[in-house]
Amino acid sequence: MNRIICHLFFVAILCLGVGCTKILDIEPNDRVSPEDLFASKEGVEAQMANLYGRLPIEDFNYSPNRGFNIGVGSDVNNAGFMAAHFSDEAIHPEYNDFGEEWFDYWEDGYRLIRDINILLQTVPQLASIDQAAKDKLNAEAYFLRAYTYFALAKRYGGVPLIESPQEYNGNIAELKVPRNTEKETWDFILADCDRATELFGEVENGPRRADKWVALALKSRAALFAASIAKFSHQPYVSFSGPAVDQGLVGIETKFADTYYDQCIAASDALMKSGKFALYQAEPASPEEAAENYRQFFQQPDQYLNGVREPIFIKSYATNTVLAHNYDVWFSPRQMVLDPNLYPGRMNPTLDFVDAFEDYTDDGTGKVKPLKTRADGNENDYNGFNLGTNYIAYPQNAPYKIAEGRDARLRAMVLFPGETWGSTQIIIQGGLVKANGSGFYYRTQTSEVGQDGQTYYTFGAARSTQYSGFDPTLGHYTRSGFLFKKFMQIDHPVEQAWERSTQSWIDFRYGEILLNYAEAVVEKSSPTGAESQTAKEALNNLRRRAAHTDQIALTQQNVRKERFVELAFENKRRWDLVRWRTFHKSFENRVRKGLVPFLDLRSNPARYIFVRVNPLGIEAKTFDYLWYYKDIPGTSANGLIQNP
Amino acid sequence: MKSSLTFNILILCGLLSTSCQKDNLDRPDATFYGELRDRKTGELIPQEVSDGSRVYYIEQGWENPPVQNTVIKSDGTFKNGLMFSGNYKIILDRGNYVPLDTLDMNIHSGENFQVFEVNPYLRILEPEIVKKDRTIIATFKLEQVTSNQVYRISLFAHSHIDVSNKLNVVNKTIELNRSISDGEQFQLSINLDEYSSTLVAGNSYYFRIGAQSHGNETKYNYAASVKIDL
């Protein structure tokens, strides 16, 4: 065996040593040429599937530590890190997050743009399809190109705009295109959206392929991003320096903010007036109904695509292939995933997030109501359990009542201690107070006899497979005190294994469009009365869908809070903090918080109390303002001017 | 066994004979070190231990040279012992002082010592931190060096001597967002009872006053940290 390998090595070295033939000039015969590919309708479809598949959609398979489409050509195991772990939405039970995206979306982006440009160049020459079909292909190409440049622009600012496939004619310098300004880049993205919208006409292709409405949704999102850059990339929000700033490659002059806000308003307005989209179950009878609607909508979006619908653009998956995703194994509670090859419990919503919801006082202020833990009303103490503090008691069999009366969406997204999930009662407990009041245990498994004679455990049960929180021995137990419901397929559970989850990702939905509209109106300098009225309605329609009955004012604070709670875990939050330029201020040596349920044996029957904590092992997070623009890779070779 | 050894030697010889010639680049031959000092008082300017000020430099004579940097240490000194001699542009900005114009500098082989004299955005005058009962009280005055308003003033606490904005367990910050008058007295305090788990009685902690100016890409200015036994 050894000998064979040695022989092979020897042969390989010989081959390498004689590599001077013009082997690279031979036409490869394992590939299809563009002419052959586009000669048939099926070929065109295959190419479109390829382009859509490579689109930088921040979906279930987007991971800030790996990139897009993890599992396709790479290991699916990314430790369960999602975008939410990088913001104030969630913490991870095993690891700390690591600042910013760990990958460069640069070469993949330009590779995709090149293939889209080749498509645009090829379509006019196709003999196999008619003009209408050509228009549709062109429109899709413009949409795909806008989407890809958007992914580049929000990371790098101004980037080289390449509108047709480059050809190498022996002069490498010709291929080095300098960066366009950030304004030119956003204008180009919005213009591509317009080209797509016009060419699509009224033909409907959605929601899995682009049409006019999808292009408008993209424009709504992109214009809002550009407007935010123009408005907030200046003092007193943030400012940068260096050659990239001097040449306008990053940042947009403030005076252009309003034109972008207006473009966002126009695109959103077209969608809102189209009559084709609406909120799913816009007027629930009760908060309970609202919570159930919201949860089911994200669990099975494919069921809600008929007629007037909320999803505008969705991405679907195929089970048992690399095109499936893994949310159901990463984020189910430990009690429900016992296979040692799986790593559950990895989405731990923060207490910061849980505290950001309203209750149903509905007095028109939209004020948030943090959870209540103490009789003295002090909710700013994160020093941990104290025997002398008078905590509010919650029933031993229903600790989740701490969230009672909070916004329906909270209960639809977050799994609270003691709730029944599927047929399992989820036990999340991190501490035990001794029956005689002489002491307590925190995150150390032990047992104590209660006043009723029963034996109780720190983590709520004797064995490590019987509870879901706080055990520090494996990274499978929540550290924040909360687990995750949104998107999870609990009503029709999938097999607990890799690559089984197929619930669709909603990339654009009507709810986001309403919030885009509201934000653009509240941020632009002088909105009309009609715009303000429509924006206020849009904001409150979303709250109405969550069973609120009052009307709150259209303010920056209310709009931002509503985006936080409505769009949570949809991978929007990080970019919201980026474009508002508030990330570096809200994450300056910040520890995201947790809430530990303690079983208090001092009373009979025992009761649950809740203690606010800095979760053990969670390090303070800082977002450096220089991360708003990522470093462009390879500048010494490509000659591009580097970001600040 | 023997024949596989022969093959291995053969492969080794093959690899050695096909590798490049001996490394033709010289090793770094220069050391660049120095200090960042207050132009008025002559004192070193203390820095944040992480994300503090840096000396940025670009080596001339290359196509598309990248910007390199050396961190200025928390005491206000810096040292890069692995520089190549040559002509450099030196950029001093993004710090806790008024940026300097870009300098042209020749770094020669051997040791290069340089003192950069700058104006800190804010000078913290007469800092005093004392423990009174269960409260840590910091008093100080500020000198506003530029016309930029004062953004915020802070009292930080941590068990490490380099306690600062990015390294603290307790942070008492007040945003001023205004210009200040000379001689104006400021006071910040930490009630130890509110931080019983982070500032544990019986241990020692460092406390430090910091202040940050408004303006482009400013950083905190600091007084010296003070050790207090709780």
From TrEMBL, chain B:
The DUF3823 domain extends over 31-119, 123-227
InterPro entries cross-referenced by the UniProt entry: DUF3823_C, DUF3823_N
Pfam families linked to this entry: DUF3823, DUF3823_C
The record's listing under PROSITE patterns reads: PROKAR_LIPOPROTEIN
From the Swiss-Prot or TrEMBL record, give the protein name.
DUF3823 domain-containing protein
